[in-house]
Amino acid sequence: MSPSLLEIITRATSDTNRAAISFSPILNADDILQNLKPRNEAAAAANPPIRRVEGWAISETDAKLIESSDAFLKKLNWKLRNPKSLDRDEFLRLLTKHLGKLSTQIGVSVEPSPSSEDVDFARAAIEKLGLVIGRDVAGPVSESCALLGIWDLLATLILQKLVVGGPSSSSLIERLIEKGESDLLCLCIKHVTNLRSSDLVSILKHFLSPPSHSMVSVKKEWEKQGFLAIKKATKDGKPSKAAANAAVLLMMAHDGFSPFEICLHYVFSSPDIDGLVLSSAVSMLNGVEVSRLVKYFVKWLRKYERFPFVIGLGKSISGLEDVVYVPSLGAVVKGLGLVFDEHFSYFVMNSGFHEEMREINGVVRALAREAELCSPLGVLMENLRSGESGTYGGL
């Protein structure tokens, strides 16, 4: 009886002499794979199609990177066991030395040199060496930055997508909430993947609490992007339709929204947040938070009722990245549906919401009528553009 495929794979991969190796950076696969060869080439024809190989080895450069990263990680983790012993200058010296060693090992120059401002060098090095640094190292580094308040360096780590969801990101988010760094929380929503439900609950509760000074800076950034969009739309006397659309969307997302509501834009427009995770987070909100969230969605429904022509215009434009974080009508309706699903009994029992529910019903009906009117006209225009004749969409 011939062996099964599972048995063939098991035999090919079994090795009692394998050594456990810790890999911090991303390795160069080309250097590893080029050394692979069948264990017994002479008997290759007689062997099954899946065979063990030998010659598996990492390059000398990769080995040095692993050794350097492990040594740095060991020192930093030892310091983090007693956070009070971690000094800002000492941390930056330790990090700068490690990054300088990595840049030398792979032959990449980083400006400014390590002898200049440590934070500037660290930021530049992280931007150039991000993949080599590895997420295993980035976790403790980001934790140290949050602990010591080195926010610009932490922002660079997040932007380079070196911070990922998990236990390390949870402690980071807790620290950012504790410090009131709402702008960095928004950055986490944009760039940290696999956020857990507990992370999202903490973020939502923070955003739905009285606004802090850092939330004001988020609103100012949206205002800045709005002015930039207007400038792009009228540059050199040549109107840009894409920039004009962006200006309208950014205006909608800015005007009439409080700073904490603008922070919510990122949560309900992010494509990286799983629907089940968001639903679980919404279910954990209390009555006051739910009330504020409903009022936020009502504002959006009124906006889309007033500006129905902007539906579907959100596209990324260079320098206007926040345009894609303007919640679409679909995202607003979905978010409102989540709130109603998770807190239905609360709305039924609380008479204070009944008037608001009637208002929401009226706005949604108006938008539905608008969609019904636009649909046959859209079919007609599409058929006219394609040159078709006859009956247009049943009209």
Throw out a few tags for this protein.
two-stranded antiparallel ribbon; 2 strands; disordered C terminus; 395 residues; 18 helices; globular; mainly alpha
**Class inferred from helices and paired strands:** mainly alpha
What general outline do the C-alpha atoms trace?
globular
Could you report the average pLDDT, rounded to the nearest whole number?
79
User: What is the H-and-E element order?
Assistant: HHEEHHHHHHHHHHHHHHHH
Largest sheet: 2 strands, antiparallel
Residue stretches low in confidence (pLDDT < 50, at least 5 long) are 388-395
Protein name: FRIGIDA-like protein
Organism: Acorus calamus (Sweet flag)
Short description:
This protein has 395 residues and is mainly alpha-helical. It is 65% helix and 1% strand. This is FRIGIDA-like protein.
Your description of this structure?
This is FRIGIDA-like protein. The protein has about 400 residues and is an all-alpha fold. It has 18 helices and two strands. It has a two-stranded antiparallel sheet with strand order 1-2. Helix 7 packs parallel to helix 9 (about 180-190). The longest helix is centred in the C-terminal third of the chain and has 33 residues, at about 355-385. It is globular.
